Amino acid sequence: MTDAWWAPYLFIALAGWIATDIWRWLGVVAGNKLKEESEALHWVRAVATALVMAVTAKLIVFPTGALSHSPMELRIGATVIGFIAFLASGQRVIVGVIVPIVLLALGLMLFG
User: Fold this and answer.
1) Are 103 and 77 within 8 A, CB to CB?
2) DSSP string for residues in the chain
């Protein structure tokens, strides 16, 4: 082993890269063999969507950082209005992202 200051950082970077990259490559290989409308791909999309929604809900209900000082009503209201704007815009993701951010920023400026 070496006593160089950078050795632990190199180890962490390599170990992290190997641990995640293997699964990415396996996903690419497996994904190329799946049909677009297969039951397995529908399941993968459902699980991925559920994970994203769980993280989003956690950030809304148990926020950290600047959001932790905002009222729960503001966070939920921005989310609901953002979702409505997302649907009204023909499910454009950019609208569903920008509208709640703007509402949160305005709410924090006015009530924060």
Assistant:
1) yes
2) ----TTHHHHHHHHHHHHHHHHHHHHHHHHHHHS-TT-HHHHHHHHHHHHHHHHHHHHHHHS--GGGGGS-HHHHHHHHHHHHHHHHHTTS-HHHHHHHHHHHHHHHHHHH-
Contact 100, 82 (CB under 8 A): yes
- CA-CA distance, 105 to 102, in Å (whole number)? 5
pLDDT tens-digit profile, the chain (112 residues)? 568 888 888 989 898 888 888 888 888 888 787 788 888 888 988 999 999 999 999 999 999 988 888 999 999 999 999 999 999 999 999 999 999 999 999 999 998 6
pTM above 0.90, yes or no: no
